[in-house]
Amino acid sequence: MAGLYDQFDAGDKAKVSFGPGITLTVLSDFHPAMRRHTQSQRKRYRTYLDMTEIPEDIAVKMDVEKATAAVEAWEGDGITGRNGEPLPYSRENVKQVMTDLPWLRREVLIACLSKATFQRQELADMGKDSALPSEQSSPTPIGATSSGP
Question: What's the Cα-to-Cα distance from 89 to each of 13, 14, 102, rounded to whole Å?
Answer without folding.
Answer: 17, 16, 18
